[in-house]
Amino acid sequence: MLLSDQKTLPKPKPFLKWVGGKTQLLTEIDYLIQSKFLKEDKVTYIEPFVGGGAVLFHVLTQFSNINNVVINDINVNLIHAYSLIKNNPQELITLLSQIEREYSAINSEEKRKEFYLIKRDQFNQKEISIIEKTVLLLFLNKTCFNGLYRVNKQGKFNVPFGKYKQPTICNPQNLLSVNTYLQNVTILQGDFEAILNYAKKPSLFYLDPPYKPINSTSAFTSYSEDNFSDQDQIRLKLFCDKITAHGHYFILSNSDVKNFDNNNNFFDELYQKYKIKRVKAKRSINSKGNQRGKIFELLITNF
Fold it and tell me: pTM for this one?
């Protein structure tokens, strides 16, 4: 464990690019948290789909009364990265800095692509250590196309090479800051439903599942070997019912399927007994460049 003084470090920010990152929704989410929990002395905060952690790091730095934090994700490699940064950041920084030097020394795009594909093949091998896997995850994330994390049906990472001239692969100061702020965070890996047992009153769940595609070009294949289907969306709604029945609170974000089909009432009907707010957000992932831009996303709450 690395003991660092929070006052001397920059505020932590996501150490990975992540599709669906919530940085642009933070103002709305921050307002919701303040409106409900500002006067509470002790609050438990739970993220069953932590992803890149934009909301997590905001909560850790902005709300001193949130003193019990639990994060979870189905993605094993992602959770290994969080755990490694929490428990052994120095070795990660050393190895990541080394691969950054190797990559930066390559002076042609063709050779860089070749280097990238070799590292991608290594990442997809089963017989490598967690530290090697995490180093490769961070390297691939900063050098692949659009910072995607996408796997095929065999669970193989298959994102193509990204043509970035000088990407920052290792940011030691941010990794040390993330390390410091994760020290009192419980890190879990598995299905979202199992995390309900960690709730203590009052608890706030922030739920950011894989978004339901709003049209045929908006999906990017898969975040894990198993797609998050409509049945999973329904199962998540039932989980929100359990959260509510236990006296806890939730904020859920998802796509607004009405962006391209005003008659699609999937979420409006599914969450009809809860509060639904439509918030403008910028779309960054689409196979057609001219279809990127401002769209609406949903913020759903039980308070």
Answer: 0.92
